[in-house]
Amino acid sequence: MQTYTLKVVEIRQETADTVTLCFKQPALKKVKYQAGQYLTLIFRINGRRYIRPYSFSSAPNVDTTLDVTVKRVPNGIVSNHVNDIIKIGDSIEVMPPMGDFVLPEENNCQTVFLWGAGSGITPLFSIAKKLLNNHPEVKVNLIYGNRRKDTVIFSEAIDQLALKHPKQLKVWHFHTEVVIDERLPDLVQGRIDAGKVLGNLPEEEIQQSLHYICGPIGLKNSVKGALDSRNVPPCHVFSEDFELVKNPVDFEGIQTETIQLNFKGNNYSLEIVKGKSILEVGLDANIELPYSCQTGSCSSCKARIINGQVRMIGLTKQRDDLLENECLLCCTYPITEKVIIEI
């Protein structure tokens, strides 16, 4: 896949453990992207290549820079590198924008709900800015969960948007570690409660609205359950996945197997330990395989099955674009002996 280099022109400290990298748009060939997509960053750290996708927090035709926001993860090699090492003036190799967590091309919807928790706000913030600046007829509801006020990413920017678009934007903050002040009606104690948000809205408005969810699996399940009970069509509900959810039941019958991997003319023998994907084992062996999302949402790690059988585990979205002999290495596990994979 083609890559290119972007220069960091600003770094914003959003919270104690979160920064936004602002990249300069290339002068000649502008980077085209959609609100809600992600940018994949490539780093060399201690001699090893690391690839990580980060959602845009900027919005096209709204912000002049290309912004991605990175929250520090405990023991996270890349997130700690970004927060501690990257500085203004650095150049970073990136892949083209990807992702389908975006607004429909033809959208007649008058109400959009954006459900997020923690760093899940990032693509929602991009979508919100796009709607508020380009679709003044659409009502935007931002529902955002955090532990407390000082962990709210984009806190000041969200407040400014609410002041600028008081009739179009409604913000709900849910905090789990605070005592609620009755003078702040839009601040609710506890985890996000979809029922409280949807409670007084007309049935017709809810059923015709669009919903974007980005956060932990518990948030997605609770919001989707509430929407299903209000008869919101599944095609109106979109979710962004940052990690594969592995059900132990899916690994029944899978054992440690040794496979052959053909990559760029080289043959590798890899022992795929039960529970680890072919991509994980390949990267641990310092094979610089192509990949990006690691959730089965993109096709960067697509490979061909030459021999044997494999099983893809953890896909949250149906992939109808893969041929019968194709798989995604990030979620693929051998289920027979003598598996041969080519990429």
State the total count of DSSP E strands. 19
Helix content: 10-25%
Residue stretches low in confidence (pLDDT < 50, at least 5 long) are none
Mean of the pLDDT scores?
91
Helix/sheet category: alpha/beta
SSE topology string: EEEEEHEEHEHEEHHEHEEEHEEEEE
Strand content: 25-35%
Question: Gap between N and C termini, in Å?
Answer: 12 Å
What is the number of helical segments per DSSP (H or I, 4+ residues)?
7
Instruction: Sketch the major β-sheet.
Output: 6 strands, antiparallel
Overall spatial form: globular
In order across it, which strands form the biggest sheet? Answer: 4-3-6-1-2-5
What Rg is obtained from the alpha carbons, in whole angstroms?
Answer: 21 Å
Description:
It is a single chain. The radius of gyration is 21 Å and the shape is globular. The protein has helices at residues 77-84, 121-134, 155-164, 194-198, 203-207, 217-229, 278-284, and strands at residues 4-15, 18-23, 38-45, 48-55, 66-71, 91-94, 111-117, 139-146, 169-175, 187-189, 210-214, 237-240, 257-263, 266-272, 302-307, 310-312, 326-328, 332-334, 340-342. Helix content is 18%, strand content 32%. The strands form four sheets. Strands 4-3-6-1-2-5 form a six-stranded antiparallel sheet, covered by helices on one side.
